Amino acid sequence: MLETINNWDTQLFLFINGMHSPFWDSLMWWISGKLSWIPLYILITGYLVYTFRWKSLWILLGTVVLISMSDQTSVHLFKETIERLRPCHQPHIEGIVHLVNNHCGGQFGFVSSHAANTSAMAFFTGLWLKRWYWIGIMFWAALVAYSRVYLGVHFPGDVLGGAVLGILLAWGVYQVMIQVKYIGLNDQKS
Fold it and tell me: Active-site positions?
C-alpha cells in the first residue's frame, strides 16, 4: 500500500514539475522566496493591530511561537526522523527533475517546512480574522506549497504533510490561547 501511494506521489510530482516554462519558473521562484512575502506579513500585522489593538500582541506572540514550533517540528521530528529524500535526490528520477536556478535544498523533504509554516500562519490568523480573509490567506498557503512541487524540491505528499502539520499546530496553539482566557480576543472578528 505504501509503495502504491509513493508511486502516485512520484507520478503527480513528475506531472506538476514537468509543466515548466521560463515565466512560471521565475514566478514560482518568487512565490517560494522567504523574503517575497514581507509586505504581506506587514499588512497582516497591521490589520491584526487595527482589529484587536493591544490584544493583537498576544496573537502576534502566538504566531511567533507557532511558526517556531512548526519549523522545528517539521525538521527535527519529521525530516530528520523519516529521512525521505527530496525528488532531486531520488536516484531513480533525479535526472528528470526540473530544478529552477539549480536549487534542490537539503537532503530530506518530508514534511515541507514551507508548507508547514505558511499553513500554520494562514490557519492561525484565519481563526482570528475569519470571513473574507480566510479564503485569500489559505489560497496563499496553497500557492506557496504548490510552488515547492513545481520547483522540484518536494513531492506533493511532502507539502500535504506539511500543511496538515501546520494546521494541527495552529489549531492547538489557538485552543491553548482560548483556554488561557484570551477568549476576549475572539470577540472582535472582522
Answer: 114, 154
